[in-house]
Design a protein that fits this description.
transmembrane; about 130 residues; transmembrane helix; about 0% strand; single chain; about 65% helix; G protein-coupled receptor; mainly alpha
């Protein structure tokens, strides 16, 4: 996917085009819209005079609403996280292989610094994933 011969603008354009096919739209059915608005007003204590936008979707299918988010979650969200973590692990392995390929014996301090660096990367990936979920 990384094409260094392309300009930064084209790479950004490609990145958005590739991810645009996975977008989803949430349009509440007219029957559910009023219920969803009332629920949102009561939870967030919004006055009747205030306007707001509300988006919602069912996690599981029901008789009233056959659409659900399970398929979207499994095929879009889970696969993107698996892909991201796979790329992360692959990068870590390649970095480790590159550092050890020169035949240099690493000191204990270097090894501990490498482990601390990888731990920090894992924490950053985890916090970014947590922020994306919430």
């Amino acid at each position: 996917f990384c094409r260094p011969h392309l300009s930064e603008t084209r790479r950004l354009f490609l990145a958005y085009i590739v991810s645009a096919q996975f977008h989803t739209s949430f349009h509440a059915p007219p029957l559910e819209l009023r219920r969803l608005e009332n629920l949102t007003r009561s939870v967030h204590e919004i006055n009747e005079g205030e306007s707001f936008y509300v988006y919602g979707a069912s996690l599981f299918a029901s008789k009233r609403n056959p659409k659900n988010l399970v398929g979207f979650t499994v095929f879009s969200v889970a696969t993107s996280y698996l892909t991201a973590y796979g790329i992360f692990v692959w990068c870590c392995v390649k970095i480790s292989a590159a550092l050890t390929s020169f035949g240099i014996r690493l000191s204990q301090k270097t090894i501990s610094m490498q482990r601390a660096f990888l731990s920090m990367l894992l924490l950053q990936v985890r916090s970014a994933a947590s922020a994306a979920i919430t």
